[in-house]
Design goal:
The complex is a heterodimer of chains A (about 500) and B (about 160). Chain A has about 500 residues and is an all-alpha fold. In chain A, about 75% of the residues lie in helices and about 0% in strands. Chain B folds into 2 domains: about 60 residues; about 80 residues, no CATH class. The chains are: A mainly alpha (about 500), B mainly alpha (about 160). The interface between A and B is large, with 64 and 68 residues.
């Protein structure tokens, strides 16, 4: 690594105009990330025309900062309204919303913003040092490992987000089933479309997520509130900010989740949702007070938030170093880079290292800005909860409608959102897990495709999943995740 | 009782998907499982767990005789909101987003206790803010409606 180049790249970012772009991009990212259904990819697409008139480095800085900010934005609505802005923020609802319900929205948002920033910073540091070797490692990951990773994600679902493991697995299973609706990716055969052409493309997970979380929550509030009970909801909200030493108390979880997030983020196609759920599962497994998770535990916010932001950073490694985008958002960033005349891929490291380091540093500065600026903005976000639910509820429903509609500009998505709102309401009533449904939906197609692809590659050898070392290790971790709590509780009972 | 009925509803969905999985065209399958193999595994898995969970729900019902805790007012509000949403989804393609979101806001504010003139003011303010944000700033192509509604929408976006 050339230190002079690093310094030059860092100074590039510190030019006032570039710094302003970082701050502006980050703020826009937070805004887009916080709106359910209005994704960071849409934000980047909207910003791309402006970049035509900028230089290469400023335009990349703007887009990358927007991308980094959006990963944090998803947590805001997850904590305040139990509505994850992005699939990566689903795990944040498990403890973020209960903490907010306890009147500690300010603290929950503070934890989210700080851990998001730390996750982002750690992933950038890893990128700076290890980008080329980690990209080569990512290339070794094949179908068997991807399948094992989805199994680990599903197993984590079982232990979290619900008081009942069976019900969490049932809803997770339904999520996987819904992911299989539409055309089979390997043969093109139509599955579970029931003769409706609109289902040939499958079910989008955003309307399902918005319905199962946002609309279901509004319906739950309606079922609970008594006469004139909607005017009193926000009075006991504390806008207490988070102190730095409070965050440092959780440094191990923070570091571990950031590492998990970065490593999972590097694998193309995985993204923040698996990273956050695996980190949350690990935080629960290693937590001293397991019974506190799901009731507003601080580590339950730190783990998924650090991981999904680290994953956003990690996903930039294969995008830049290999030219393989791992998500729709990184694909759009890749397109923007190409429009600017850059050629992402192995030669970027050798031919334009200054550019590569500038990109990494812009993400670094964006995370630092999130850390300080976000902490200041926390009070403003939390203050929204002071509004009576009678006013907040209709606004949440309106955002849900537009968020669903904007996916394909089709009212069919609004119907899907309404249907899953009703289903989500009953899930809440009977202690099924809406989170497991969404995660099953996100992981389902990846799980099936990689399972079947591995079987094709190995002529139907089912044992091949256990014959590859990385896949075997992940599967062993998955098995331990299930078996360990059972054995440990029996052991405790025996004692 | 509600929990038992919900389990039966979910089992019904499993049955419908199960029947549908037998009709999947497997002729072009290149892998040992084919397009129907994985769904059948998942359906079996869900089915078994649902039966186990149903048995537990029945036992729980016998022991506690639990009822679904929804007040009449709560149930009425939920039904009204869902009807409003369904109405919105049905009429928006015809009358466009601007009018339908304004009406929906007024209905929702009334359902949630903000009645009378207050609901109209809140509805107008919220609809204007939403239209400005999503239509004007973010250029989301929201439905314009048909005929005169479409012509009117061009005056705004």
């Amino acid at each position: 690594m050339d230190i002079n180049l690093l310094i030059e790249a860092f100074l590039n970012i510190l030019v006032p105009s570039n710094l302003m772009l970082v701050v502006g991009g980050m703020m826009l990212g937070v805004f887009f990330g916080a709106l359910p259904g209005i994704s960071s990819s849409m934000g980047i697409v909207l910003m791309m025309p402006f970049t035509y008139y900028m230089g290469i480095i400023p335009s990349i800085i703007l887009l990358v900062a927007l991308y980094a900010g959006s990963a944090y934005g998803g947590s805001i609505t997850a904590i305040m309204f139990n509505t994850p802005g992005t699939p990566g923020a689903v795990a944040t609802t498990f403890d973020g919303y209960p903490m907010s319900q306890k009147g500690k929205a300010g603290r929950a948002l503070g934890l989210a913003v700080s851990s998001s920033a730390v996750g982002g910073i750690i992933s950038v540091l890893i990128m700076l040092v290890l980008a080329p070797p980690m990209s080569r490692f990512a290339l070794k990951i094949q179908s068997a490992e991807y399948f094992a990773l989805t199994v680990l994600g599903i197993v984590c679902i079982a232990g979290i987000g619900s008081k009942n493991i069976e019900k969490a697995l049932i809803t997770g299973g339904f999520g996987i089933l819904i992911a299989m609706m539409g055309l089979d990716p390997m043969t093109g055969a139509s599955r579970f479309t029931f003769g409706d052409v609109r289902l040939l493309n499958g079910i989008e997970f955003i309307p399902v997520m918005i319905g199962a979380f946002a609309l279901a929550e509004v319906l739950k509030k309606l079922s609970e509130s008594l006469e004139a009970g909607f005017d009193t909801s926000g009075e006991n909200i504390s806008l207490e900010a988070l102190k730095l030493k409070d965050l440092l108390m959780h440094k191990i979880v923070l570091l571990k989740s950031s590492l998990i997030g970065t490593v999972i983020g590097i694998l193309p196609g995985t993204g923040g949702s698996i990273a956050s759920i695996v980190s949350y599962g690990e935080a629960v497994r290693s937590g001293k007070n397991k019974e506190e998770f799901g009731k507003g535990c601080e580590e339950g916010i730190i783990a998924p938030e650090a991981a999904n932001n680290a994953a956003a950073g990690g996903a930039m490694i294969p995008t830049l170093v290999l030219g393989i985008p791992g998500s729709p958002t990184t694909a759009i960033i890749l397109a923007a880079l190409t429009l600017q005349g850059l050629q992402p891929g192995p030669q970027l490291m050798t031919e334009q290292p200054l550019m590569l380091y500038s990109i990494f540093f812009s993400m670094f500065i964006a995370s630092v800005v999130v850390f300080f600026g976000g902490r200041l903005g926390v009070k403003a976000f939390a203050a929204v909860l002071k509004l009576p639910y009678g006013i907040l509820g209709p606004i949440i429903v309106a955002f849900s409608i537009i968020g669903s509609y904007a996916i394909t500009n089709d009212m069919f998505q609004v119907w899907i959102m309404i249907f899953f709102g009703i289903v989500g309401f009953f899930f809440k009533k009977f202690e099924f897990s809406g989170a497991a449904l969404v995660l099953g939906l996100v992981l389902g197609s990846m799980m099936e495709e990689n399972f079947r692809r591995q079987l094709v590659l190995t002529d139907g050898n089912y044992m091949s999943f256990f014959q590859r070392p990385i896949s075997l290790i992940i599967l062993i971790i998955a098995i331990l995740t299930v078996v360990y709590p059972i054995i440990s509780s029996k052991f405790k009972k025996a004692n | 009782m509600g929990e038992i009925l919900f389990h039966i509803f979910l089992l019904g969905i499993v049955a419908v998907f199960g029947i549908s999985s037998t009709n999947i065209n497997t002729a072009r399958a290149t892998d040992p499982m084919g397009p129907s193999g994985f769904p059948i595994i998942i359906l079996t898995f869900i089915g078994i767990l649902l039966i186990v969970s149903l048995v537990k729900a029945v036992k729980k019902y016998r022991e506690e005789k639990t009822k679904m805790e929804i007040t009449k007012t709560g149930l009425k509000r939920i039904i009204l909101l869902l009807l409003s949403l369904a109405g919105f989804a049905l009429v928006t393609p015809k009358i466009g987003f601007i009018i339908s979101i304004f009406v929906l806001f007024i209905l929702m504010f009334n359902i949630m206790g903000q009645t009378g003139f207050k609901s109209i003011i809140l509805g107008l303010g919220s609809a204007t803010a939403i239209i400005l944000l999503f239509v004007v700033v973010l250029s989301v192509p929201l439905p314009r409606g048909l005929g005169i509604f479409k012509e009117l929408s061009y005056l705004i976006y």
